[in-house]
Amino acid sequence: MIPKVLENLKIASLNEMQHAAIKAMRKGGDLLLLSPTGSGKTLGFLLPVLNLLDEKKQGVQALILSPSRELALQIEQVFRSMGTGFKVNCCYGGHELKIERNNLEHPPVLLIGTPGRIAAHIRRGSFEPDSISMLVLDEFDKALEFGFQEDMSFIIHQLKKLNMRILTSATKALEIPSFTGISSPTELNFLSDRLPEGLKLKCVIADGKDKLAALFGLICELDNKPSLVFCNHRDAVERISDLLHDKGLTHAVFHGGLEQEDRERALIQFRNGSHRMLITTDLASRGLDIPEIEYVIHYQLPPTENAFVHRNGRTARMKAEGTSFLVLAQEEQQPAYLKEAPEQITLTKNKTIPKNSDWATLYIAAGKKDKINKIDIVGLLLQKGKLEKQELGLIEVLDHSSYAAVKRDKIDLVVQLIKGEKIKKKSVKIAVAK
Q1: Quick check: 111 pLDDT over 60?
Q2: Which of 221, 243, 327, 373 has its CA 20 to 30 A from that of 236?
């Protein structure tokens, strides 16, 4: 089945880590998979799981626990794209439990979810845990950091027939708690202490303690290339966002204090190129499906070397080149985990605000659960919206909403042209996503 899966995913071949994971799981037992962000860990555990799924068995056979909603949804999307024919469901907070319970009345073969929501379903008897023989704890260290230990312990103690466990992490210093039931797993370690080979480290020194002006000057010089700006705290994210709004520079923000819908929209607009800059906490440093980044900017320095490596792992991936910038206050010391001083750059005094992206995002209030697909949306926007193919970009269809990238200079006209039009004979709200 693997050759067909790779064809469906448009992947030419597996990498060394993925081959090793498949080989290790054929031998049986538990697996600890250590591999950096962006290395393809999701396929690294989905393929071994797929090899062991049995279409003749009833009930949930494999459970994948993820520390975040976004990562859970991403794993679900990858599995659906594999075209296996097996049913999959994803459960997470932020929407009604009742909807998920209805979906679980006909149990999927593969169940994906966040620990809190899966624990809630087990307590309510939404599915039978005794049928589960495989468990994946993805980004396990992050789940512990987020405080999911109690939920994970509860869940694992309900899984009486487990015979395979996979733990994944992008961090080496990993102590495996006893509640996992893992004592001597096969370890596959593809981590490195070094930063990506193609990564350049540079720093900007602010005048005085206020770093906002230095950050804005740097953003102007980088000319709105795909960039991540990392902060340690949500209030810093919002402070930077307020400044960029005042300057008229489009961007997205992403942190744990946002509603789920706002977080999803931010990532979609970043992926489709409507926003070229994502201001975020470390929530976006690992696991998420976001495009190759040209620049990583550390507005606030992470406290540990691990966090620094994870942030920088968003650029210079797969031997490509990228640049990481540190924004330092006048008296701020560079962190001890930096072995060499980064190159200091001087910003020019002329601050030209970068031009916004050529793309904007169209919101459609209907999705998979409404029987809407990408072909329906393409047809509507090309035929009724009078767009040319090159004026329509990435389309993403979620359960109850869809998003399409449209050329910014065309999007207002498109909204006017398709106002009142129906998709699959249904009237739906269509608007420019904010």
Answers
A1: yes
A2: 221
Q: Which of 189, 213, 236 is the last residue of a domain?
A: 189
- Token output for 231: 């902060």
Residues 162 and 55 placed together within one structural domain of the fold: yes
What does the CA dihedral 417, 366, 387, 266 come to, rounded to 10 degrees?
110
Calculate the CA dihedral of residues 319, 1, 399, 373 and round it to 10 degrees: 90
Q: What is the pLDDT of residues 206-240, one digit of tens each?
A: 987 789 999 999 999 998 888 999 999 999 999 99
Q: What is the pLDDT of residue 198?
A: 65
Contacts of 113 (CB under 8 A, 6+ apart): 63, 64, 65, 66, 72, 90, 91, 92, 121
| Residue 18 and residue 75 share a domain | yes
Query: 136 is in which domain, residue-wise?
Result: 2-189
- Are residues 423 and 306 part of one domain? no
Give the domain CATH number at 387: 3.30.70.330
183 shares its domain with 38: yes
CA distances from 298 to 277, 287, 326, 428 (A): 13, 19, 5, 41
Q: Buried b vs exposed e over 318-345: b needs ≥16 C-beta within 10 Å? A: eeeebbbbbbbeeebeeeeebeeebeee
Query: Does some domain include residue 354?
Result: no
How many domains does one find in the chain? Answer: 3
Angle between the N-to-C axes of helices 41-52 and 2-9, in degrees from 0 to 180, rounded to the nearest 10 = 140
One-letter amino acid identity for 32? L
57 versus 311: which is more confidently predicted? 57
Task: Examine the domain organization and report whether 66 and 174 are in the same domain.
Answer: yes
Do residues 340 and 363 both lie within one domain? no
Give me the pLDDT at residue 319, please.
Answer: 45
The pLDDT of 3-29, averaged and rounded, is 90
The 3-state secondary structure of 328-377 reads ECCCCCCCCCCCCCCEECCCCCCCCCCCCCCEEEEEECCCHHHCCCHHHH
Pair 110, 132: CB distance under 8 Å: no
User: Would you say 387 and 381 are in contact if contact means Cβ atoms under 8 Å apart?
Assistant: yes
pLDDT > 90: what percent of the chain? 62
pLDDT tens profile 66-76: 998 889 998 99
- This model's pTM is above 0.85: no
Please state the rounded mean pLDDT for residues 186-209: 81
